[in-house]
C-alpha cells in the first residue's frame, strides 16, 4: 500500500486489552475504580503536604510533586481507554495519539527524575544529617524540580519529533490501550532505523542516568548505615528511606518487566497487559506505600478527615 504522511492519517485504532464485550465491561469497572483510587490517593497526599506545616520539608516537597506527576501520568492514558471501553470504540485521533506520546514521555521521565531527587534527599539526610537543612534548602529543591521538568520536556519534544516524522499506511491498528511509541515505530511503513537508534539513545540517557544516580545514592546510604553500631540506629536510619526504595523497585521493576516480557513474547497484546503495572498499578500504590509507612502522613490525613467530618 502507498504510505501516507502521519498528518494525513485522521485516526488510529487502539485494540486495547481484549475484544470480548463482556470482559470489556469488567475492564471498564476495574480501570475506572483504579483510576479514581489513584486520583483520590495522590490528591490526598498533595493536600496533606500543602496544608500541614509539619510536612513542609524537602522530602515531602518531592513527594507532593511525585503525586502530582502520578495523577498526570495516569490521566494521559486511562480516560481515553475508559471512553473507548464505554462507547465500544477503538479509534483515537491523530492529535490524541500525538498528545499521548508526548505527555506519556514527559511524565514518565519526570517521575524517574523525581525518584532520583528523592534518593539524593535521603542520601543527604542519612550521610550528612547535620548539614541537611543547609544543603537541601528550598531554593535547591525548587531548582531540582525545575531542571527535572525541563529535561522531561526536552525528552517529550524529542519523542514528538520522532513520531511526527513517521509515515503510515491506512488503517493503523495499535495492539495497545494507548499510543505507545515503540508500537508505532513497528507499524510505520517508512524506514525507522534512525528513529529506533534515537529512541534507544534517549531511553538509555534519560532512563539509565537517573537509575545510576539512585543506585549510587543507595550504595552510599547502605555504607553509612552499616557504620552505625546499634541495631536500632540502623533500623531507624533505613526506615526513613524504606518507602522510597519500595516505590523505586516497583517503578523500575515493572518497567523492566514490561520490556523483557515484550522482548520474549511474540504477542504485542501480552506486552500491553504487562504495561498496566507501571502505567496504572504503580501510581495507584504509591500513596498507600508512603502513607501506611509514614506516621507524619497518617497524622496529617487524619487531621484533614477530622476537619471534614
TrEMBL record:
Protein's cellular compartments: Membrane
UniProt keyword annotations, A-Z: G-protein coupled receptor, Membrane, Olfaction, Receptor, Sensory transduction, Transducer, Transmembrane, Transmembrane helix
Topology within the bilayer: Multi-pass membrane protein
GO cellular component, one term: membrane
CDD domains: 7tmA_OR7-like
Keyword Membrane: yes
One example GO MF annotation: G protein-coupled receptor activity
Transmembrane segments: 25-47, 59-78, 98-120, 132-154, 197-216, 237-260, 272-292
Main location: membrane
Signal sequence, renumbered to the chain: none
PROSITE patterns, per the entry: G_PROTEIN_RECEP_F1_2
Residue ranges occupied by any G-protein coupled receptors family 1 profile domain in the UniProt entry: 41-290
Function: Putative odorant or sperm cell receptor.
Protein name, UniProt field: Olfactory receptor 18-like
Name of the coding gene: LOC104999928
